[in-house]
Amino acid sequence: MSSRRRVDPQELRGAIEVVGPWLGDERQERPRRAELAAAVRLSLRTLEDLAPGRTVEVRVPPFAAVQCVAGPEHTRGTPPNVIETDPRTWLLLATGRADFAEAVDEGKVSASGSRADLTRWLPLVRTTA
Fold it and tell me: What is the pTM of this model?
């Protein structure tokens, strides 16, 4: 497990609120890079805390990647269970505005490996919008 401090839920909620208008309507102005990065990184660290382990790597380029989910660990190279998506899709999943299985089916999320399913841990935070 990471040695970083745990994410303050209010800090995560605040970061999500900043990007919320854009999540609700893609036609809204895209958040500044730093705002988007903060929301992605805090939400991924929250996932890492909720699902400790090193079986699944979740990648949200260009901002962050974390390893999570208990089970067999890999030590070198690309892990056998990888999930990758864009920042907006990740934040929609993290806030419950999108369904993981549907996002995979629609090609918005790439999920490879028998353990590459985050349904159990999503959403990370619920929003009112």
Answer: 0.92
